[in-house]
Structures are given as structure tokens and as C-alpha cells.
């Protein structure tokens, strides 16, 4: 999985359509702390990793509102710089700026939409053993347009759900944070861990720069099961507290997971001690 964890592809590479799901037998294999589905080699259906999903079903869309909270309590959003589309691809990653919540423009990104795709294209062309459900993140501006999209993956089965967070523009800082991750049994005091090596290309002077590779070690624990108020109503959620530690510092995540709607709230503490909060506001086509 190491070559998959950092994989992000532009949306325009992702043609496809909905297909009728078929369930297959599989075994669960522990891959560095994450349980993944392993099928017989004769099973080549590209929907084999989505057919048993309960939360991340093909065609579903999860709309998240967000904000970045500075150390002084002020809240910010972000938007691409005016010249972003003219820059080389690698430079576009950093071509963004923070915008105070009181000074938003039509170009300010206000929402992130997670869309679940059927099939395995185009990842299967690059990684023959790709074993995740493909998702897209759409960064929605205040004017209703999406200037930039990315594709990545989620692992869902009866043992665990492990999700790549959004990681474009300002959200690149989340590469250093614990990824949303819940593992059965869904009981208070259940603990688990995994690790990930991260290259210095993910560094940014706006939060942290470093040289060489670091290794994040993640520790998770279910700390509570409680009702929280959400845009979808009052929901009983599993509260998961997570910490990521490496030689450059520590980050945290408190997430709230609902067994039908998935991660309804994510509260990150970033490497620079700012806060990033994502809250599920709507589910479409579920």
C-alpha cells in the first residue's frame, strides 16, 4: 500500500459509469495496521472493492463545510491565486492564499465535496494491485464552480474504514495529520495504530518545512460514543481520538463517525497548532 497512500490523480482521467454491484468472497489482510480485502485472482470485476460498501457507495456525494482557525481564533478559507491556472502543474499546488471569513470572494473555496466512483480506473492502469474504492474531492468556490479536483481512495469493509483526506492546495497540510480511520469493534477503549512515510515535497513554509523523509506513527482510540448535533440532525457517533508523531512534531484528529453517514465531523490540530474543522452538511444520491 505504500505506493498508494500518496496517490492523487486529476479528475479528467476518470471516465466511468454506474454498474450493478456483485458481491464476492474475500479474505481480510492486515496491511501495516489497515485491513484490506484480498480476492481470488480469478475475480477481476473492477467493482469488487465497492460492492459491499455501506457508507461509500458508488454515486454518493458527501458535502463538507470547513474552516481553518488561526491561533488568535480568526477563521479563514482559501482560494487559488489569480495566476494559478497559468503555472506549471507542480507550482499550482502552492498557488493559493488564505482569505479571512469576513473578506470572502467568489473565488474562495467554501465547500469540499467527496464523490464516490464505481470501478478502478485509472488507478488500476498504474497499480495492478490497487485495492481501494475510488473517490474524488471537488473544491467548490463561492460562485458554485469547482476550479480543482483530485482523485484518491478509501478502504471500507466490515473491519475498518480508512479514508484519504482532501490534500490539495491548503488541504495539503492534512498529509501530516492522522487520516480518518475507524476500526471494529466499535467500543470505547478500542485502540489501533499504523504508520506512513512522508517526503519533504509535502512541506510548506506556511505550516512546516523539513528535509528528507519522515515517518508518522499514528495511534487511535475510540474515546466515546455520544450524540452530536449535525446538519443531518442529532446523530449517535463514535468519537475517535488520534495522534500522529514524527521527528518534526505532532498532529491530532478528533473524528466523529456514524455507521451510515461516515465521518460527519473532523477536528484537526495541525503541525503549526492551527485548527481545521470539516463538518458534513449534506449527502446526495445515497
Please tally the helical runs, counting DSSP H or I stretches of 4 or more residues.
3
Oligomer: single chain
Number of domains: 1
Shape: globular
Radius of gyration: 18 Å
What's the number of extended β-strand segments? 16
Layout: helices, strands, pairs:
Elements: H1 2-5, E1 27-31, E2 34-38, E3 61-69, E4 75-80, H2 89-92, E5 96-100, E6 109-116, H3 123-126, E7 133-141, E8 146-156, E9 160-163, E10 181-183, E11 191-198, E12 214-230, E13 233-246, E14 249-258, E15 262-269, E16 275-284
Antiparallel strand pairs: 1-2, 3-4, 3-6, 3-16, 4-5, 6-7, 7-8, 8-9, 9-10, 11-12, 12-13, 13-14, 14-15, 15-16
Description:
With about 290 residues, this protein is mainly beta. It has one domain. Helix content is about 5%, strand content about 45%. The chain contains three helices and 16 strands. It has helices at about 1-5, 90, 125, and strands at about 25-30, 35-40, 60-70, 75-80, 95-100, 110-115, 135-140, 145-155, 160-165, 180-185, 190-200, 215-230, 235-245, 250-260, 260-270, 275-285. Strands 3, 4, 5, 6, 7, 8, 9, 10, 11, 12, 13, 14, 15 and 16 form a 14-stranded antiparallel beta sheet that branches. The chain has a two-stranded antiparallel ribbon with strand order 1-2. β3 (about 60-70) and β4 (about 75-80) form a beta hairpin. The chain is globular, with a radius of gyration of 18 Å. Residues about 1-20 have low confidence and may be disordered.
Amino acid at each position: 500500500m505504500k505506493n498508494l497512500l500518496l496517490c492523487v490523480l486529476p479528475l479528467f482521467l476518470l471516465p466511468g459509469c454506474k454498474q450493478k454491484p456483485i458481491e464476492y468472497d474475500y479474505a481480510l489482510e492486515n496491511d501495516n495496521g489497515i485491513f484490506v480485502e484480498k480476492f481470488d485472482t480469478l475475480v477481476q470485476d473492477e467493482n469488487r472493492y465497492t460492492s459491499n460498501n455501506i457508507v461509500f457507495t458508488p454515486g454518493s456525494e458527501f458535502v463538507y463545510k470547513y474552516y481553518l482557525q488561526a491561533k488568535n481564533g480568526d477563521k479563514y478559507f482559501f482560494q487559488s491565486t489569480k495566476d494559478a491556472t497559468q503555472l506549471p502543474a507542480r507550482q499550482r499546488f502552492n498557488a493559493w492564499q488564505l482569505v479571512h471569513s469576513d473578506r470572502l470572494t467568489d473565488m474562495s473555496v467554501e465547500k469540499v465535496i467527496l464523490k464516490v466512483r464505481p470501478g478502478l480506473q485509472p488507478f488500476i492502469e498504474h497499480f495492478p494491485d490497487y485495492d481501494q474504492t475510488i473517490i474524488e474531492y471537488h473544491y467548490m468556490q463561492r460562485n458554485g464552480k469547482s476550479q480543482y479536483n483530485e482523485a484518491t481512495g478509501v478502504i471500507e469493509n466490515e473491519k475498518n474504514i480508512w479514508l484519504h483526506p482532501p490534500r490539495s492546495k491548503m488541504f495539503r497540510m492534512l498529509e501530516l495529520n492522522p487520516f480518518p480511520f475507524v476500526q471494529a469493534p466499535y467500543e470505547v477503549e478500542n485502540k489501533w495504530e499504523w504508520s506512513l512515510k512522508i517526503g519533504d515535497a509535502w512541506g510548506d513554509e506556511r505550516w512546516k518545512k523539513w528535509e528528507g523523509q519522515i515517518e508518522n506513527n499514528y495511534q487511535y482510540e475510540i474515546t466515546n460514543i455520544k450524540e452530536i448535533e449535525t446538519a443531518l440532525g442529532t446523530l449517535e457517533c463514535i468519537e475517535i481520538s488520534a495522534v500522529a508523531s514524527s521527528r518534526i512534531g505532532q498532529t491530532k484528529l478528533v473524528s466523529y463517525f456514524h455507521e451510515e453517514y461516515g465521518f460527519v465531523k473532523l477536528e484537526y490540530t495541525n503541525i503549526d497548532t492551527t485548527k481545521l474543522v470539516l463538518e458534513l452538511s449534506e449527502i446526495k444520491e445515497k
